[in-house]
Write a structure and sequence with these properties.
- The protein has 207 residues and is α/β, with parallel strands linked by helices.
- The protein has a single domain, classed as 3-Layer(aba) Sandwich (Rossmann fold).
- It is 30% helix and 22% strand.
- It has an eight-stranded mixed sheet with strand order 1-2-4-3-5-6-7-8, sandwiched between helices.
- α1 packs parallel to α5 and α2 packs across α3.
- The protein is globular.
- It starts with a strand and ends in a 7-residue tail after the last helix.
Length: 207
């Protein structure tokens, strides 16, 4: 998987990303965990999901939210981060990608949830959505999420809460035994979940 360092965005907010072109018109954009808690595009979970998507023939863009790494600006409580994700989507569209899957991990899943009500996109992947920390508008997310995946030892995304979310959204749920919020030593299982969704169910299709 060869990734190209890219910069995109307008005005004062220029964002840093890593883009891997797989050919075709399918793409995915990956959003990282909380910017003030060490989250960035180099996060191992974000990298694992990107690699799994690329292996399935999907171009990927992982990027740093404003104020992280080489991205300009400063943390904006999720509001500006939604604008960052919209800029990332525009970047992929400019590269000719038409079918775009948003995938967010932890805080990135919450930011992605906010954007799903504003743009028509392929149903998203939520990895360990922090339902104990941030509100998710389940009514507004109907038909917009394809997969929720979490561990059964995750205090921020308890398995029972994830089951309730997936049931409300009629999407696929995978609970990985022994995994915590960080999926330490469970990266292979996480990649398999993503692979199963995009290869067997179609890109982002819930079932």
């Amino acid at each position: 998987m060869k990734e190209e360092k890219v910069f995109f965005g307008e005005d004062r907010i220029r964002l840093e990303g890593l883009f891997a072109a797989a050919g075709g018109t399918r793409g995915a954009v990956l959003s990282h965990p909380h910017s003030l808690m060490g989250g960035d595009m180099g996060n191992p979970v974000v990298a694992t999901v990107a690699q799994a998507l690329f292996a399935a023939g999907i171009s990927t863009l992982r990027f740093n939210f404003r104020g992280v790494g080489g991205s300009a600006g400063s943390f904006d409580e999720g509001r500006g981060e939604q604008e960052d994700l919209l800029a990332a989507l525009a970047f992929l569209e400019d590269r000719g990608l038409k079918e775009i899957l948003p995938a967010g991990y932890s805080f990135g899943a919450w930011v992605t949830a906010g954007v799903l009500g504003r743009r028509a996109l392929t149903p998203a992947i939520f990895v360990a959505p922090p339902i104990e920390r941030f509100p998710f508008d389940l009514e507004n997310l109907q038909g917009r999420v394809g997969l929720v995946v979490c561990g059964d030892r995750d205090p921020y995304c308890p398995a029972d809460g994830a089951r309730a979310m997936a049931a409300a959204l009629s999407c696929r749920l995978v609970v990985i035994p022994g995994a915590d919020h960080f999926f330490l030593s469970r990266e292979t299982e996480l990649a398999a979940c993503v692979d199963a969704l995009v290869r067997k169910g179609g890109i982002g299709s819930p079932h």
